[in-house]
């Protein structure tokens, strides 16, 4: 009986090892990389198109009619399709303009490298080619920093700016990360640096959204597909490394003082990635008005977690701004924020 049990356990372990090697070896060799043409067919259907900007083929998607609203996606393997829920809700009233800013999504490789200022420069050149001289901006996560670079280089172009997740201060370096993600990151760093499985992003979205949120399968599938495109991880690591250097050596948040257009700050209290509270961010915008809308039980993905309310608040903000007119005057008393923010929920693991 004992020998039979030992043989059974040994067989199960052998099959598990063989299954692991059957996945690990192809992944290590790059055989499981996403096929670019297949991803274009999946994520760049009409009205997507590719526009050459300084030698970089940029994936661009324009829908609707009206005043142009340019949306800047975040990082973590996402692309312009991160904005699908908001684009669907605004395109009947505005021209919704989205692009994959490099090194993300389906936009091609940039021989000049990957930094936030370079991404902002390319987006400005893209808007020049599209002849969009005046736009409103909606941005989240590191896309917010790219949008601020666009504003810095051409402030007359920006009529209004709405930010949800905005990393003006260096993200917390001490927050607890879910143990599965910690182990997965350590494993991939040591043994499989150029590949990520879909389950990694299932854990990531679940961990960074609000408590009890079940992200739709589209999100981890999209991140899995995008991150495993050829050279995607290496290029995105280069971008993150430059961002880390900037936060260590410069005052990244000082760029907010360049903004003179009205600002909407949509603060998500269960976001554990940027968790210092809205006050510090509001104080950075020294030359404009800031309207703060707070969501006490929303995490890092408000466009998916509360799509209707998120869109309604952006729509209300845009309708309150003279988008077609001259730049809004600077408030005499500096930035204006909402009343005392609610107590922040107990910190939760995040990435």
Features:
351 residues, eight-stranded mixed sheet, alpha/beta, globular
What is the compact description of this entry?
The chain has helices at residues 2-29, 36-43, 84-90, 116-129, 142-153, 179-191, 198-208, 218-227, 232-249, 278-284, 302-305, 307-319, and strands at residues 48-53, 56-63, 68-72, 95-99, 135-139, 158-163, 263-268, 290-295. By secondary structure, it is an alpha/beta fold.
Explain how this protein is built:
With 351 residues, the protein is an alpha/beta fold. The chain folds into 2 domains: 1-32; 35-351, 3-Layer(aba) Sandwich (Rossmann fold). 41% of the residues lie in helices and 13% in strands. It has 12 helices and 8 strands. It has helices at 2-29, 36-43, 84-90, 116-129, 142-153, 179-191, 198-208, 218-227, 232-249, 278-284, 302-305, 307-319, and strands at 48-53, 56-63, 68-72, 95-99, 135-139, 158-163, 263-268, 290-295. Strands 1-2-4-3-5-6-7-8 form an 8-stranded mixed sheet, with helices on both faces. α3 (84-90) crosses α12 and α7 packs across α8. Mean pLDDT is 89; it is low at 326-351.
Topology, please?
Blueprint: H1 2-29, H2 36-43, E1 48-53, E2 56-63, E3 68-72, H3 84-90, E4 95-99, H4 116-129, E5 135-139, H5 142-153, E6 158-163, H6 179-191, H7 198-208, H8 218-227, H9 232-249, E7 263-268, H10 278-284, E8 290-295, H11 302-305, H12 307-319
Parallel strand pairs: 3-4, 3-5, 5-6, 6-7, 7-8
Antiparallel strand pairs: 1-2, 2-4
Major sheet? 8 strands, mixed
What global shape is seen? Answer: globular
Percentage of helical residues? 40-55%
| Count of DSSP H/I helices | 12
In total, the number of strands is 8
- The string of secondary-structure elements, in order, is HHEEEHEHEHEHHHHEHEHH
């Amino acid at each position: 009986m004992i020998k039979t049990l030992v043989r059974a356990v040994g067989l199960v372990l052998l099959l598990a090892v063989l299954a692991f090697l059957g996945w690990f070896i192809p992944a290590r060799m790059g055989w499981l990389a996403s096929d670019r043409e297949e991803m274009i067919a999946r994520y760049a259907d009409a009205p997507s198109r590719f526009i050459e900007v300084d030698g970089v083929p940029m994936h661009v998607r324009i829908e609707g009619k009206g005043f142009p609203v340019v949306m800047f996606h975040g990082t973590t393997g996402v692309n312009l399709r991160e904005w699908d829920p908001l684009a669907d809700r605004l395109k009947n009233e505005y021209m919704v303009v989205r692009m994959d800013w490099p090194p993300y999504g389906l936009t091609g490789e940039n021989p000049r490298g990957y930094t936030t200022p370079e991404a902002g420069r390319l987006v400005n050149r893209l808007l020049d080619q599209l002849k969009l001289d005046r736009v409103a901006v909606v941005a989240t996560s590191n896309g917010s920093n790219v949008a601020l670079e666009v504003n810095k280089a051409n402030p007359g172009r920006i009529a209004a700016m709405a930010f949800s997740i905005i990393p003006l201060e260096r993200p917390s370096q001490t927050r607890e990360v879910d143990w599965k993600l910690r182990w997965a990151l350590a494993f991939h760093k040591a043994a499989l640096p150029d590949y990520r499985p879909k389950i990694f992003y299932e854990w990531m979205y679940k961990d960074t959204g609000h408590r009890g949120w079940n992200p739709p399968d589209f999100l981890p599938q999209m991140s899995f597909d995008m991150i495993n495109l050829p050279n995607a991880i290496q290029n995105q690591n280069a971008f993150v490394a430059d961002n880390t250097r900037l936060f260590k050596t410069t005052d990244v948040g000082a760029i907010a003082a360049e903004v003179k257009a009205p600002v909407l700050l949509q603060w998500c209290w269960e976001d554990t990635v940027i968790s210092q509270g809205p006050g510090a961010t509001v104080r950075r915008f020294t030359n404009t008005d800031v309207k703060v809308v707070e969501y006490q039980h929303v995490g890092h993905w408000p466009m998916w977690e509360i799509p209707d309310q998120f869109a309604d608040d952006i729509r209300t903000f845009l309708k309150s701004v003279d988008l077609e007119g001259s730049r809004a005057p600077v408030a005499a008393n500096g930035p204006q924020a909402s009343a005392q923010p609610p107590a922040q929920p107990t910190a939760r693991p995040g990435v």
